[in-house]
Specification:
mainly alpha; two-stranded antiparallel ribbon; 331 residues; single chain; 12 helices; elongated; 4 strands; two-stranded antiparallel sheet
């Protein structure tokens, strides 16, 4: 029940609850109550205008009946606003002033050692750091993301020329290939699935989270620092989604000493958390991506689709072929 559900507009003592909520400062309850009261006042003005536009006169029309009618309209407006049966104005004000972000922080946050409220990874995940460009509709350019192709064929060479894989993408895949293969064996999934997710989270390495001095946090998967995390952290504002709407909040993320450490922590996160059990051992991109999404890995509703497109896209396919060939020739 909302804070205004039992408000009697004719009893001054009924406003005590509103005063109590106001004393709490920035809280979703206080904001909701204020938004509902604003809607109530607005609806009272609407009712008054409607009454004045109605022709007066009749056996039961008098100054006294109009006074009681006004009191009835005042109470009716309050009841409609508090029960969510009004014009929807209170909900709009609540969202516009950041009420959903306050509510999400209250429900999923914890108090850190500095006294500030942070989000806990066990309850809240993140959206990806990049937008994915859909793969071109050109079957001739399709390249299977094979993990053991030692010698590139003519089709692969043609696809590589057509795809024009940027050097930073190729370097990103080469850099992570070895650690991804080890992590993939532990999770029972193809290694390039993990590189694809790292690419989605960091924009192929160009949007890695960085410390205050500019050095990288090595956090390839944008894993947040929950209440149990004892290591280094980086803090920055991020975009989250709640009830289909985006909002911004400051969040703490884990920081590692190396990419190998980041992969080990990622493996522990997926393997030790039953929420991600559906993603383990999957060999199909859709099954793996949907397993992560259903576990709540990211708040972005399009997260699974974006990840699937990267896994099956030409960019990763060609870059992975090149990294595999280079590793084979170095043996």
């Amino acid at each position: 029940m909302s804070a205004m559900a039992s408000l009697n507009t004719l009893d001054p003592r009924s406003f005590g609850e509103l005063q109590r909520l106001a004393a709490k400062g920035d809280s979703p309850e206080a904001l909701r109550a204020a938004a509902q009261q604003f809607e109530s006042v607005f609806m009272q003005m609407v009712f008054k205008a409607m009454r004045e536009a109605t022709p007066q006169g009749g056996l039961f029309d008098s100054e006294h009946t109009r006074m009681f009618q006004s009191m009835h309209d005042q109470q009716l407006a309050s009841d409609l606003a508090s029960r969510g049966n009004g014009m929807g104005l209170a909900d709009a004000i609540f969202r516009q002033l950041g009420g959903e972000a306050m509510q999400a922080a209250q429900e999923h946050g914890h108090i850190g050692p500095d006294g500030r409220r942070y989000f806990d990874l066990s309850n809240v995940a993140r959206p990806p750091a990049m937008q994915v460009i859909p793969r071109p509709a050109n079957p001739a350019a399709d390249v299977p993301a094979a993990e053991n192709a030692a010698v590139p064929t003519a089709d692969v060479a043609a696809a590589q020329a057509a795809a024009k894989v940027p050097e930073h993408v190729a370097g990103f895949v080469r850099k992570l290939r070895g650690e991804a293969e080890q992590a993939g064996r532990e999770l029972g999934v193809p290694a390039h699935f993990l590189v694809a997710q790292a690419a989605l989270e960091t924009g192929w390495g160009r949007a890695e989270l960085r410390r205050a001095d500019g050095s990288t946090s090595h956090n390839l998967f944008n894993i947040k620092a929950g209440s149990g995390w004892k290591g280094d952290t980086v803090e920055l504002p991020v975009t989250e989604y709640a009830n289909g709407r985006a909002y911004t909040e400051n969040a703490r993320f884990r920081a590692y000493g190396s990419y190998a450490e980041a992969f080990r922590d990622y493996v522990s996160l997926l393997r030790d958390n039953p929420r991600y059990a559906e993603a383990l051992g999957q060999q199909q991109p859709t099954d793996f991506a949907q397993g992560l999404a259903r576990g709540g890995y990211a708040t972005d509703p399009q997260y699974a689709d974006k990840l699937v497109r990267i896994i099956g896209g030409d960019t990763l396919g060609v870059a992975w072929q090149g990294a595999t060939q280079l590793a084979s020739s170095a043996r």
